[in-house]
Design goal:
There is one protein chain. By secondary structure, the protein is mainly alpha-helical. 35% of the residues lie in helices and 8% in strands. The chain has three helices and three strands; from the N terminus they run βββααα. A hairpin with a 2-residue loop joins strand 2 and strand 3. The longest helix has 12 residues. It comes from Angiostrongylus costaricensis (Nematode worm).
Length: 101
């Protein structure tokens, strides 16, 4: 399975660094929950570009992770999620989104 790795059970008690939900394994280079894994994958595969209605500093937590996709994706990148084995075009796209406000 691309983007996922098997994780020792003790590590699965940790919280997702993006939203605080319980982690399910390593996804795209970071120990995250299933929700953030899917969100990150859809965002990159569908080349989505999000805008923040506030100041690009929205809180991202389990209860409100769907409120601002721009801030959630920025937090995914900030915490270290990345597409492994991606082409330069895909890497450039991810970087361009991370730099937008």
């Amino acid at each position: 399975m691309v983007g996922s790795e098997v994780t020792p059970r003790s590590r699965l008690e940790e919280q997702c660094p993006v939203c605080g939900d319980r982690v399910s394994g390593y996804h795209y280079g970071l120990l995250t929950c299933e929700s953030c894994k899917g969100f990150f994958k859809r965002t990159v595969q569908n080349k989505k570009s999000y805008q923040c209605a506030a100041s690009s500093n929205c809180p991202v937590d389990k209860a409100g992770r769907k409120r601002c996709p721009r801030c959630r994706f920025a937090k995914c990148l900030q915490q270290g999620m990345k597409i492994e084995g991606s082409s330069n075009l895909l890497a450039d796209f991810v970087m361009s989104i991370s730099l937008r406000k």
